[in-house]
Amino acid sequence: MRTFSTRIILFMLIAFNGLFAAVSPDFPIAGWAVSGNTTGGAGYGEVTVDNTSDLKSYAKAGNKVIYVKPGTYAGQIDVGSNVTLYGYPGAIITQPHGQSAIKVSGVSNVIIRNFIVKGIGAVDIDANDCVQINSGASKIWIDHLDVYDGQDGNLDIVNASDYVTISWTKFSYTSASSDHQFSNLIGNSDSKTTDSGHLRVTLHHNWWADGVKERMPRVRFGRVHVANNLFETKTSSSCVRAGYKADLRVENNVFIGVKKPIDLYEGDYTAVSVSGNYFEGTTGNTSGNKTAFTPSYSMPLTDVSNKAKAYALRDSIKNFAGATLPAPGTVYSSSSVIPSSSSFVSSSSSLPPSSSSVISSSSSAFVSSSSIEVTEAAILEKHGSGSSNQTVVAGESIASFYYTWINASGVTVEGLPAGVSYVLDEEKKNVYFEGTVESSTPAGDYTFTVTTVGNPITNAVKSGTIKVTSTTSIESSYFKSSGFQITPKIIQSEASITFNLKKQGLVSLSIIDLSGREVFSKKWNASTGMNQMIVNSSSITAGVYYVQLKTPASESIQKIVIR
User: Fold this and answer.
1) What is the pTM of this model?
2) Active-site positions?
3) In 3D, which of 266, 262, 257 has the Cα closest to residue 285?
4) Rounded to whole angstroms, how far apart are CA atoms 411 and 402?
5) Which of 41, 66, 98, 508 could disulfide-link 550, Cβ–Cβ 3.0 to 4.6 Å?
6) Reduced to 3 states, what is the DSSP secondary structure of residue 231?
7) 205-247 per-position pLDDT tens digit
8) Short-list 244, 123, 142, CA closest to 186
9) Domains and CATH numbers, the chain
C-alpha cells in the first residue's frame, strides 16, 4: 500500500507541476554568517504574531523567535539583536515611503527567513532600501526572501556591517519601478575607509531576475563571496561590479543572457577571482584579475562546468529561491514537495518504500525538518555495493548505494548528474542513490555532496564523484554498422547472433564491458551465407556490454544487457 500511494502522489505531482509552487527544503546556514556564529533567537522564547503592531514590538525588543502568520504587514520593521523572524507562506512586508520595509541597524545576531518584501518602486532619488543592513550590524542571515521594487535598492549592506550571508533570495523589479533598478550595494562610498576589514558577505543560491539592471552586487571594501547564484535577467547592463578596494571571489555561478557578468569598473579593486562559472549568451567581460581572499569557512559548491550541470542548478534556484519555505514545524514528505518539471526522475521501485520517503531529482535537495536533541556531532555512514566514486556511461544505470545519517534531522544533496535520483527514508534515516544517467548528459566528473542538517554542534558532509563517459569513448575504436543481429538484446541466459557473409572467412566475436575490457571472445571460420552462433551468458556478470563482430568485410558493434 505504501508503494502504491507514493506512485499515485508522484503521478499527481508530475501531472500538475505547473499549478503549484515549489516548497523548499530547509537548507542549513552557510558562509560568513557561520563564521560569525549566527543563531538568531534560538535559546530565547518563541511567539507567533498576526498583526503589524505585535510584529514591530517583538522584533524591536529582540531576544525572540518570532513566527509571522500569513498577511500583509506595513513596514518599517526595526529588528533588534538575537532575533529570528520566520514568515508563514504568504507573509508579506511592505515598504513605506521614506523608510525601509525591514531595517537591521547597529544590532547583532539576526535571522530573517521566508518573507515577500514588497517595495514601492525604484526611482532615481536618494531614498531607502527595501531591506537595509546598516551601522555595524553583524552576524546576519537573510534567507528565502522575495525582494522586489525597492525604492533605492532591494537589499543593501553598508557602514561596516559584517558577517552576513544572503541565500536563496530572489531579487527583481516590476513595472512599478521606473529607474535606478540597482539591486544590491555592499559599501556605499569610496570615502568610508572605516568599512575596511568589515563587509564580509556571502551570497549563494540567489536569483537576480527580470527588472534588475545593475548591482548584483556592487562592492566596495568588502570581502565578498559570490557563489552558486543565478544571473538571468533580460534588463541587465552589468552584474557583479568590483568597486573601490573590493575583494571579490566569484565562483560556480550561472550567467545566462546577461551583459558584462564581471564588471571590473575603474580597476581600483583589491582583487577579483573568477572561476568555475557557466556563461551562456552573455556579452562583456567574464574574467577577473589578481587573487582574492580565501574564506575562513568551508561551503560545498555545486559544479556548473557544463550546460547540464548549470541547468540543474538553475532549475533548483528557480524552484526554491524566494519565500518558498513551509510553515514552521512542517515535516517534509513526498506529498508536500513539487519537483522540477524539467529534470524530475522518479526513483526505482527496487528502493525500499517508506511512508516518509522523499523522492528527488538531481537538481533538488529535500530534507526532513523534524527537530532533534543531540549532544554529539552528526555522522554520515556509507553503505551498499555501489561506490560513491564510480564511472558510468551516459544512458546507463549507476551502482546503487546509500548513506545513513546519525545525530541529525535529515540531509541535503547537491551535484548529481541528470537522471540520478535519491530517496530519503526518514524512518530508517537513510538516503538511497539510484537511477540511470540521461543519455544526453555531457561527459565529465559530477561531484555530489551529502550534508546533514539539524545538528546544533557540527553537521557532517560527505562527497563523491560520478564520472560520466560517452559511449563514443568505447565505440569510436570500432567501425559501426548494422552487420549482425542479436536476439534478444536483454539476455537472461543465452542469445542468438546471426550475420550474413558474402564470402567464407575468419570471423571473431568479442563481448566487451563498459571499461573496454574483453570478457568473452571466439574466432572461427564462418561459411558463405547466413550464420548463427548461440552465446551462453551464465558465466558473465550481469550488466551492460558491447558485442563486437569482425568479419573479412566489416567490423560492427552493438549494445546488450545481461541479467
Assistant:
1) 0.61
2) 215
3) 262
4) 12
5) 508
6) strand
7) 999 999 999 999 999 999 999 999 999 999 999 999 999 999 9
8) 244
9) 29-293 (2.160.20.10), 331-469 (2.60.40.10), 477-562 (2.60.40.1930)
